[in-house]
């Protein structure tokens, strides 16, 4: 092993550890790893920047815009709502939901689909007195099944496709992955409506848990007549530095102020609403001129009226809030909303809100003004789980243009009339020319953090390949699976990709495994397509944890799930996908 190979492997291992420990946002960690390789001269500037001009990465960017136009058309929600049916037979409704969700996610990014339909499914369940935990994991899994069906089903497929093109190969055709993923997906749906349905828990949603436990974290106090606090700001009154409580709302003559600014001056008879650890309520009782209400029957519903509303939001993997406390993130001033409570792993965190360190998957209960949902519906920091009252819906003519453009783009790529990248370029131009989507709207839908992660990960993949690190690792795997032959090598590649996907991100997993699997294929003298298909399926087939795939993370809190629920339901699915993939790949591309 040369010093250069050792250094590259050290950088990659350090990057993986940082991703697993979530020391920062994934895109920032991968960017730093690439920067180290660039600054130390391991990789040239032109090679480091190749990821930013990679055809697969650019196609992903274009498809964000196409998917955004289809999403804002408002045509998708009625399809799924109608498919769910009456709910009298829950397994049938589950099947009727999973089939269209799988179909939709074959052509659209699954993250916005899950964000869009989680509140729809939850509302449907609530109206029929069905536990949403019986439907939300299947909703996520259905989009994962669909994402593996086509070239454009997930960004991972396009990244591998772009890598293949850079290496002088043909890349995937539109439905090539379906040779493996269609039978795997059908078996997956069958599993979910039979064995999986029995394993799915019956749990309260985060919304129900918040409501039922509201008396455990909400308290109120009044500013007394002639109180020395009158005329003082919230800051001056010491209400910003309480040890266990957090001021979320001030009610004055029926008018509500939420969130509460530090400079707000107190007046006689102001009603102050706090959230936090009620055992520390003595803090309020020690403040002269403040009367604490004991035995309050305050409920969450009482916090909202015409100007204030409660909103649920799930913290994303890309969030800038991760690893910061609520106070450090300056949440109130940055988002103009107050955090009432935080739900994690099927329970509310019983601490002062300001001191809680935020993690991916946390469900935040927010008290905000009415336009909060519309302003932050496309935030990179969290996914909103409350339905937007005034959704951005374009006129029927433009809705038809959006859907027609998507279909034509798919047909052009499917019949090789245009390469996928050119078909996507044509689709985006059409959407702009017809004013179906504006430049401002397009900017909202492009996930720049995902693109940065992909581009930087490609640079790291190139470093692995050029230094010989990939060949060294490949040689080790070939020796390790010598007795099992090619099929053993495919199993190892699939397993490692799945493992990386569960603990880091799917795109990073695919990019790291691509050069290694290409080297393995060359050493074994077999068609590398066998390994590339295995990587594409394995990088998306993430079922065993809520953190490996964004779709799983989105339903984690709203469904009231525990981490163990994913292990119990997802591990059999992971094994199912591994077996189906390895068998079909071996007989189609190896034998």
Describe the structure.
By secondary structure, the chain is α+β, with helices and mostly antiparallel strands. Among the domains are: 64-204 and 391-445, no CATH class; 208-384, Regulator of K+ conductance, C-terminal domain (Alpha-Beta Plaits), CATH 3.30.70. Helices cover 55% and strands 9% of the residues. It has 27 helices and 10 strands. The strands form 2 sheets. Strands 3-2-4-1-5 form a 5-stranded antiparallel sheet. β2 and β3 (255-257) form a beta hairpin. α5 (76-84) runs antiparallel to α6 and α23 packs antiparallel against α27 (563-590). It is globular and about 85 Å long. The model is unreliable at 389-393 (pLDDT under 50).
Short description:
With 591 residues, the chain is of the alpha+beta class.
Descriptive labels:
single chain; 591 residues; alpha+beta; 5-stranded antiparallel sheet
